[in-house]
Design a protein that fits this description.
Helix 1 packs parallel to helix 3. The protein has about 240 residues and is of the alpha/beta class. It has helices at about 35-40, 55-60, 65-75, 85-95, 105-110, 110-120, 150-160, 180-190, 205-215, 225, 230-240; strands at about 5-10, 15-20, 20-30, 45-50, 75-80, 100-105, 125-135, 135-140, 145-150, 165-170, 195-200, 220. It has an 8-stranded parallel β-barrel with strand order 1-4-5-6-7-10-11-12, surrounded by 7 helices. Strand 5 (about 75-80), helix 4 and strand 6 (about 100-105) form a beta-alpha-beta unit. The chain has 11 helices and 12 strands.
């Protein structure tokens, strides 16, 4: 059964969603992220993907108080990302209640630092963020596309022990037009034992079922839930079946 991981993206301590990573296309869905997290927990969800969009822009952790509130107010396993650039950022994230952290830009720009996190904190606590535009890695809150190709990028860190990767196709994110299933199949054919977490484009339970059929282990979904295309009862049925 594919693991469903709802997303909460944070700007100004509010639950928001962007379209294609564009900060100018922001929609606020709830001013109380803890309330949203509790709603997910009540549906049977075990894990939450929490993204500090302010942190991604500022290049350091910003919304750790939101993380603290959700970790203290629920039993959700939280993976936290956005702007994590230093050991101090990770210390704050873990002390605020994150079980895992996601690093994307840092893995591109300072691979030695990211590699050191795998050694210091263990591969089970470090997720590689591979955000792509046309199979090229994008960084810094998706405002910058690099020359780094997806497959060698994932392979490099897999050798170092990373076994969980969140791959977001930015062209799909927040557009509700379906996920990049062929891309995920390609990644899994190259790295069959990877715990690949699909992200971007999910518009319905049919998309989640298609990802499951493709052998994708986990999926992050946000906007489809907030826009009512995926209902809480759909999640509950899927998770409990």
């Amino acid at each position: 059964m594919i693991e469903i991981i709802p997303a909460i993206d944070i700007i100004d301590a509010k639950c928001v969603r962007l379209s294609q990573g564009d900060y100018d296309q922001k929609k606020v869905y709830n001013e109380n992220p803890l309330e949203v997290a509790k709603m997910f927990e009540d549906a049977g969800v075990k894990r939450l993907h929490l993204v500090d969009l302010d942190g991604a822009k500022a290049q350091h952790i910003v919304n750790y108080k939101v993380l603290e509130k959700i970790a203290g107010g629920t039993n959700l396993t939280i993976d936290f990302g956005g702007g994590l650039k230093s050991d101090e950022d990770l210390r704050i994230a873990f002390e605020s209640g994150a079980s895992m952290v996601t690093g994307g830009s840092i893995a591109v720009k300072k691979p030695d630092v990211f590699s050191s996190w795998i050694e210091k904190f263990g591969s089970e606590r470090i997720i590689l963020g591979a955000d792509v535009k046309g199979e090229k890695i994008a960084v810094s809150g998706w405002v910058e596309t690099t020359d780094a190709d997806l497959m060698p990028f994932v392979g490099k860190f897999k050798v170092l022990g990373v076994d969980k990767v969140i791959c977001t196709d930015i062209s799909k994110d927040g557009m509700l037009q379906g996920p990049s299933i062929e891309l995920y199949k390609k990644i899994l054919s190259e790295f069959p034992d990877l715990y690949l977490i699909a992200s971007g484009g999910v518009s319905s339970m049919a998309d989640i079922e298609a990802l499951q059929e493709a052998g994708v282990p986990a999926v992050i979904t946000g906007k489809a839930i907030y826009e009512g295309r995926i209902k809480m009862e759909d999640l509950t049925k899927f998770i409990l079946n």
